[in-house]
């Protein structure tokens, strides 16, 4: 059970991919003060935690009985969407999120969706809810969220400290690290598509 818990935390943290998020959010880091950024981040992560716990609690039932959609279809579509996001970042870099503007109080929802609440993290929440007791599933999700949130807070502090001296170098580093992280996102996207197809084939063979 301990191994499953650790694996679940790692899975969720990898799908959050704070390296990719910090690269995507570099413009927002530049525009917002430390206090404003922390406030936006905490609200976004709180919204995300509530959604993930909901899917961990009843994700399978929600898809099959309420939405009447196969989970395999969600994996395939989510994987395609994830793949498009990673490809767009590889081509356009951080410019792909220039629509995230406006007052800080409006940014939390934009950050939560789609950067935090995405097809990968939602499917991971369902998986964690299926393989762990409900209490441990919630705890694994919260631990992964806290780790990712702390990483982004530290990245903001370091960004503010370093950019005063070497802003051009910092911008270039974050652009490169973001594109490298996009490769991981693309790989996860392809794996989601493959798992969705495998699940669909298994369900078809049973029927």
TrEMBL record:
PANTHER family according to UniProt: UPF0056 INNER MEMBRANE PROTEIN YHGN (PTHR33508:SF10), UPF0056 MEMBRANE PROTEIN YHCE (PTHR33508)
InterPro entries documented for this protein: Multi_antbiot-R_MarC (IPR002771)
Family affiliation: Belongs to the UPF0056 (MarC) family.
Record carries keyword Membrane: yes
Organism: Bythopirellula goksoeyrii
GO cellular component term, pick one: plasma membrane
Pfam families per the UniProt record, alphabetical: MarC
Name of the protein this chain belongs to: UPF0056 membrane protein
Keywords associated with the record: Cell membrane, Membrane, Transmembrane, Transmembrane helix
Membrane topology: Multi-pass membrane protein
Subcellular location: Cell membrane
Transmembrane segments annotated in the record for this chain: 6-25, 37-57, 69-87, 107-128, 134-159, 180-197
Signal sequence annotation: none
